[in-house]
Each structure stands twice: as C-alpha cells, then as structure tokens.
Write a structure and sequence with these properties.
Strand 9, helix 8 and strand 10 form a beta-alpha-beta unit. The strands form 7 sheets. Strands 2-1-10-9-11-12-13-14-15 form a 9-stranded mixed sheet. Strands 27-33-32-28-31-29-30 form a 7-stranded mixed sheet, with helices on both faces. A 4-stranded parallel sheet has the order 4-3-5-6, sandwiched between helices. The protein starts with 6 loop residues before the first helix and ends with a helix. It is built from 30 helices and 33 strands. By secondary structure, it is of the alpha/beta class. About 1% of the residues have low confidence.
Length: 845
C-alpha cells in the first residue's frame, strides 16, 4: 500500500535503536550517531521550530557540511511540515542571501565555518544543534496530517549550463523513487543479514536529492550506516573505505575516475604497473571469482567488504566503468535530474547492463522523441519551479517532462545516455556533433587527465573545440588530437583545441565542469598562447585564502611569492593548504617535497608532478587490540612500573587536577630521554594510564621496522624485534618530523575514538640544554581537531641526572608536575593555542 508521506520512514529510525545510523568526520574524530539519537534529535528540532513559531509551509535554509546534525535537522523539518531549502556548502554567501530573500526564509541552520550572510535572519549552528534542542522532549513528535502532494523541499539546482532555479519537491515526488527501491530491497534482506551492517560512504552532498536518497533513506531500509567524509582526497577515501569496512561507495564520476588513477599511481610507484596491465588484459571475460582472486592485492587495499560503487550526478566514462568491473566490483549508475527527484533509471546491482544507465523505475514512463531527447512522465516529476506564491510548471501540458538529454533505448529497455541536447554542436555542414562522443575519444588517450568539448561560434553555426587537462601540461597536445581524430568520423574531427591554463576545470559541488566559465575562457583565449599568469588560477585562490587566514591580504599571488616570508604561512597553514590542494585537484602530494617548497611556483610544479612515492608509515592498530592490550597491562605492572620506582621514584604534584577527567585526554610533555614515557605513565591515574597512545619520532620507528639491507642479518632481526616491543609495550605510533604527519594526526583521532588518550612531545625533539624549545605548530591543530581536554605535564630533575651520567636517583629527585586540563573551542586559531600552551607549560613549577 502506498505511503501517505515520508514521515513513516522517520518512525523506522526510532525502531532501529542503538545501531549506528550516521558517522561523520569532525576534525580528526569520527562522530557516530545511532538511529535512536537521530530520532530523538529529530523530534527535539521539530519542537524547537514550534517554539520559534515556524509552522507548516514556511521555509528555512539548511546550509552546511554533511553530518548527523544535518540529517536530524532535515527530518525535524519534515515532522513539523516546514519546507527545507538545502544549499550547497560551497555556495557563495551572496547567492545564499538572495535565495533566503526569495523564499522568505524564517531561519538558517549553517555550519560554523560558513559566514553569517544576513544579520537580520535568525541563525543556528549545526555543530551546536544537540545542545540547543536539549531542552525539548525527544519523544515522538505529533506531526500534522500530510498528503503526498505536500511540499518537502525547494532545491536550487547548480546546473552547468543555466542559472540555478528552485525546484519544488513534494513527499510524493520522493516516494515515487523510494518505494520501488524499497520493494526491490525486500527481496534481498535475507542475504543482507550475512553482511550486516552494510555501510555506505556517501560523498554526494545532502543538498542534492540523490545525496539525500543514498544518505538518509536507502541505508535505513537496510538497517545500514552512512558515512560522510569532509574530503575528496582519493588517499583518504581509500583509507576510510578500508578502516570503516565500507560496502558501497556513493560518489560522482569525477572521484570514481580519480580513484582509478590513484590505484594505477600506487602500482607505478610499487613497480607493478606493467604486470597489472597484463593481468587487466587477461581478465577480460573471466569469471567474477577468477578476477576477484587475480586482483586480490588491490582488494586488500580497499578492504574485503567493499564490493560496489554507485555513480550519480553525471555520466561515468565507459573506460572507468570497465576498469572497476574488470577488477571485480559492481558499478551501479543512475540517471535523473533534480526535476525528476534525482532518479529516472538505475542499474540493478546484480543485473548490470554494461554502459547503460539502467531501466526506468517502476511506475515511471520514459520515451524518446524524434530527436532522441529523453522524456519522462510520472509522480517523480516535480510540480514546478519556485516563483514565490505560484509555481512555473516543470512538465508540458501533456505531462511529459523534456529532460534536455539525449538517449537511446535497447530492446531490453536499458537506457543509454548520449549527451545534453542543448550542448549539440551544429557544424557549418549541418551535421550534429555530440561533445560526449569527442570527449570519449580524447579520454582514451593516456596523456589526457580530463577534457571537455565546447562549441565555438562560426557563421551562425559552430565547430567543436577541445579543452584539455593534460597529465603533463608541457607536452604537445597535437599528437593527442591526431590520434583521437582517427577514432572519429570526418565531420566529428577536432580542428581547434587548447590546453586549460589551470590545474583543473572550475567545477560544481558534484564535480561537473562549469561549462559557461570554460566557454568564456575559450572565447577569450582561442588563438592566444595558453600560458596564463598564476594570479587568475585556482591555486592562487587557495594560497591567497590561506594567507588571509594567516593575517596577510595579498593583492595578487605570483609564482615568486615565498610561502613563509611573503605570505606568512606557518606549518599549520601548510597542512591545511596541502589538504585543500589534494581535495581540489584530487591527487596525492608528496608531503616531504611539499614541506620543502618555498615558493608558490614550486607548489605549482608539485601539483603537476604528483607521482613521487612517499614513505608509507605503519599505524599499528593491532597494538590497541586483544591480546596485545592484556600483554601490555601485565608487562607494565610486572616490569615497567617497578623499574620506574626502582630507578627514580618520581614525586608527582597536581594529580588532583585529573580527578574529574574520565574520558580521553591529550597529554603534552617536555622531552628529555627515551624513558620519559615511564614517568608520564607512573604519574597518571590507572584509568588514564592504561589507555594512552604515545607519539614517537616516525623516522626512528621506520628505521627500526625497515633496517637497511647492508646491516647483518642478526642486527636486522634485532631491530625488528625492538620495533615490535616498543610498539606493543608502550602503544607507540609514528609522528614523522618531515612528512606523513596528517595521517599521524588522523590516527591520533582514531585512537581517541577507541577511548585512548594521546601523549605528544610538542617540541618534536629531545632537549639539548634542559630548556624547552618552541612548540611545533601541529599541537595547535591537534588541540582544535581532537576536541578533548589537554593536560600539560612537566618532568623536572631528569636532565640533570642525564648530564651527570647517573642511572639511579634519590626518591623525589625526579618530579612530575601535572597542570590543569584546558579545552579550546573548535573555531580558535591554532597559533593562539600554541602560544597559550607554551605559557601554561612555562608556569608549571
């Protein structure tokens, strides 16, 4: 029986109880919300809206990072009958302000990092939502009566070829797509129990309807969990898939293609690319199980539970689909527009049609007109575009919605995407050229990282112009064009081209190239040398933003600008810049070379050449699992603790400061000798002592784990044994001095999520004269992103013993002073935190 509204799905959240529903990154932590908490906060937010006098049919803006709070706010509006206006987190504040005025918004709920665009509009922070609504009851909210025709949300599309418009989506529109999927899922629920819980890594923004389907509704039909990630870095995506045991990745074609490139970059760095290419050719047509075994070393990289990729938002290149299918993964494509509530057709995960975008969902009608345009009719078609008090119809008088896309249907009903009708290039010869056909030929060339084909006006008609992103921008594009033209018909041949002057195309939040901006540049530069000043590039924009955060306001950023002297970028700013560049260009950068880059021009060269291998440190998660945890506890109390008090029974002061501390904390201490950890552990209460992860110089740990080949066999074996003992007995993890510190910080966040505190020596090296060296800037980044209490601890008297060469000390000669715990807000500047911690540490006596 059809459902009357989506509110019935919300009730299922409460029934699923303590199972994890949503996990999302916040800083270096992974925050996990069970279904019951989502249901409780949803009801509380509905009551908050009621307390503010916001009623059914009124509008609020939801603008922020994908998170559990976003989901709760969206569902809370649904319970209250308030219309959600979701905004892209990358939307310009001025655009958001205009939308707020157009829909007469009563409230904006936004992330902390986004600006307040209208002081006169009431605002709530997503991160503070649980505390704000805690005063309300979490019992089920008595929703008003709903019909399928009631408006759920207004989605302002970020189309690549037109101005954004507000599409009005009703309960019935979403149900028309959700109900057929629910009916099909029921057939497989028995098998799901074997793999429960199925985890979705959703990289589509929740401001888009497809992101909502795969991030809010479909996972809960399976009792699964959805994970949101705040980065598009391919390396971090792969780590998350493996660490979180993800089953299904939901993303845009651009990232799925970037992941394929990362796999091949890693193979090339390991010297295995040639072997992989031979295996790849051999695997064509092989049984799934044979391919699964043949590429087991790639599957190990992603984790054994990972099996499918869902692509949405644009057409996936056939070569990329073939790549993942041949490795043994299911690639599921969907097709739709915001006007069709994101879906028209979708591939069945177990009955895939190669190259197709699936069959039309049950209850929907799809046909092609004489020109091949895809027409859709059904309840999923939106009622209209928002025009204040009235709606501009989406469909024509015959109820058929003209998608503007070209397609093909085969005899089995599989739909194939052929391109955008409005992008068709009509040549002076009267021939229709579809850019997607030309782009497909160009993408077959190994030198091409990405491309778009746009029309250049010529005597009332147009000719195709290829805009290329080359892997090596200095290479000659002409041979690439010539080889691509051999695969094209005469009337399709590319006769004009240019190399895009920046490292990537301008893109929407779903990673589609912004065609109007690209076409504008093409018109300006056609026939002009393609080298462009850096000042207009995306790299310059990112660097300038970091410089402004560091207190500088550069009018322009040249290649000669020095990162430290001219732009005032600290090591913390560099960490942020490195992450931003990897996200922006979806590449992996060598951190050691990045840390050595002195100018913006050197950064630009690194982006163009991201293939240099880096040292892959091991992060010993096994050291925090049974039976190692029991072994560490036994060895400490049988050997380490007695030895500490035998050598130098330390006098501890300030332990009373820790009486109320129950959870993980970040301990910072001065660094004097190799045995500092023993004194820190002895000073801590048992409840904290037994759950402490210790950061150690990564380069030293690497040398122990990977002794040089020239070392004799016995010494190499001894070094590896020392590595195991140090890691196992003291729960040590690497904190490199030169590169890899981002992954180290992320591991610290994982440890905190598992209930462990973290010990860091913020000087980064042992003291040479007994005095404290300046703290490294990374401690400020850890403080803001771990969001746990920080406890300064000072060891006195040990340096004097070290200088005198003594192995034993009188009781009390070594002193450990514990300072008061301090906590910093997530919005506080890392540099300010470092200065404050240095002052606090200096006051310990």
């Amino acid at each position: 029986m059809p459902r009357r509204s989506l509110v019935e799905y919300v009730e299922q959240y409460r029934r699923r109880g303590a199972e994890i529903a949503v996990a999302h990154h916040r800083g270096y932590r992974m925050v996990r919300w069970p279904y019951a908490r989502i249901a409780q906060t949803t009801a509380q937010f509905a009551r908050e809206l009621e307390a503010r006098g916001i009623s059914k049919g009124e509008r609020i803006l939801l603008w922020g990072e994908d998170s559990a709070e976003w989901v709760a706010a969206f569902l809370g509006c649904m319970l209250r009958g308030v219309i959600v206006v979701p905004m892209d987190r990358i939307a310009a504040p001025e655009f958001v302000r205009r939308v707020a005025q157009q829909v007469e918004a009563k409230l904006v709920v936004r992330s902390r990092g986004l600006p307040e665009f209208d002081p006169g509009l009431a605002s709530l922070l997503l991160e503070n939502l649980p505390e704000i609504v805690a005063r309300h009851s979490g019992e089920p909210y008595p929703s008003p009566a709903f019909e399928r025709s009631d408006t759920l949300e207004i989605v302002f599309t970020s189309g690549t070829t037109s101005d954004p418009k507000g599409v009005v989506i009703s309960h019935g529109n979403l149900l028309a797509n959700l109900e057929p999927m629910e009916a099909e899922i029921r057939h497989y629920l028995g098998y799901e129990r074997i793999f429960h819980p199925i985890r979705f890594l959703n990289l589509l923004p929740l401001s888009h309807v497809f992101g909502q389907l795969l991030g809010i509704f479909v996972p809960q039909l399976l009792g699964g969990a959805v994970i949101f990630l705040d980065t598009l870095s391919p390396a971090e995506v792969v780590r998350t898939v493996k660490r979180e045991r993800v089953s299904v990745l939901v993303s845009v074609p651009r990232l799925i293609e970037s992941l394929a490139e990362k796999v091949q970059r890693d193979l090339e760095a390991a010297g295995r690319l040639d072997r992989f290419r031979k295996d790849f050719e051999t695997a064509d047509g092989e049984h799934f199980l044979k391919r699964w075994w043949r590429f087991r070393w790639i599957r190990r990289q992603f984790g054994w539970k990972f099996w499918a990729l869902i692509s949405g938002g644009a057409a996936l290149p056939s070569s990329v689909e073939t790549f993942w299918n041949r490795l043994g993964y299911a690639v599921i494509q969907g097709y739709g527009l915001t006007e069709t509530t994101s879906l028209v057709s979708v591939n069945h995960p177990f009955r895939l049609g190669k190259g197709s975008i699936g069959k039309a969902l049950p209850g929907l009608q799809v046909k092609l007109d004489a020109s091949g345009e895809i027409l859709v009719r059904g309840e999923n078609v939106a009622a209209g575009y928002w025009q204040g008090r009235r709606l501009e119809p989406v469909a024509g008088e015959d109820a058929w919605f003209h998608t503007g896309d070209l397609g093909k249907l085969d005899s089995q009903g599989n739909l194939y995407f052929k391109g955008r009708q409005k992008n068709v290039i009509v040549t002076p010869a009267g021939m229709n050229v579809y850019p997607e056909d030309l782009e497909g030929a160009l993408r077959c060339e190994p030198e091409v990282r990405d491309c778009v084909v746009v029309g250049v006006s010529r005597d009332g008609n147009a000719e195709p112009c290829a805009v290329l992103l080359l892997r090596d921008p200095a290479s000659d594009p002409q041979p690439v064009i010539e080889r691509a033209n051999r695969a094209l018909a005469e009337y399709q041949r590319i006769r004009q081209w240019l190399v895009w002057p920046e490292q990537d195309f301008p893109r929407t939040s779903t990673q589609k190239p912004r065609l109007p901006e690209i076409q504008k540049v093409v018109k300006e530069r056609l026939g002009v040398p393609t080298s462009s000043p850096l000042e207009s590039g995306a790299l310059a924009g990112l660097v300038a933003r970091m410089a402004r955060q560091a207190g500088q306001a550069p009018a322009g950023v040249s290649r000669e600008a020095r990162l430290e002297a001219d732009l005032n970028l600290s090591s913390v700013d560099r960490v942020e810049l490195l992450s931003a560049l990897e996200d922006r260009y979806q590449i992996d950068l060598n951190e050691a070379q990045f840390s050595e880059a002195a100018t913006v021009g050197e950064l630009e060269r690194l982006i163009r050449e991201p293939l240099v291998p880096r040292r892959n440190y091991s992060y010993p998660r096994w050291a925090q699992r049974w039976p190692i945890t029991w072994l560490r506890w036994a060895i400490y109390y049988l050997l380490v603790w007695p030895a500490t008090y035998l050598l130098a029974a330390p006098r501890v002061r300030g332990r009373e400061h820790l009486r109320r501390v129950r959870g993980p904390l970040l301990v910072i201490s001065n660094h004097i000798t190799m045995i500092d950890v023993g004194f820190i552990l002895a000073a801590l209460p048992a409840r904290l002592r037994n759950h402490l992860a210790v950061a150690m110089e990564g380069e030293r740990l690497w040398a122990m784990q990977h002794p040089p080949a020239g070392m004799n066999l016995f010494r190499r074996w001894l070094e590896r044994v020392k590595y195991f003992l140090v890691v196992a007995l003291f729960n040590v993890f690497p904190l490199p001095q030169q590169s890899g510190y981002r992954e180290s910080f992320a591991y610290a966040g994982e440890s905190v999520d598992r209930g462990y505190g973290v010990l860091v020596f913020p000087e980064g090296e042992r003291t040479r004269d007994g005095r404290m060296a300046p703290f490294r800037a990374g401690i400020g980044l850890l403080a803001t992103r771990l969001d746990i209490p920080i406890v300064p601890m000072r060891i006195d008297g040990l340096f004097e013993l070290k200088q005198a060469g003594k192995r034993f000390a009188r009781p009390g000669q070594v002193r450990v002073i514990i300072g008061e715990p301090v906590r910093y807000g997530t919005g506080q500047e890392a540099g300010e935190i470092v200065g404050d911690l240095e002052r606090r540490f200096g006051s310990l006596a």
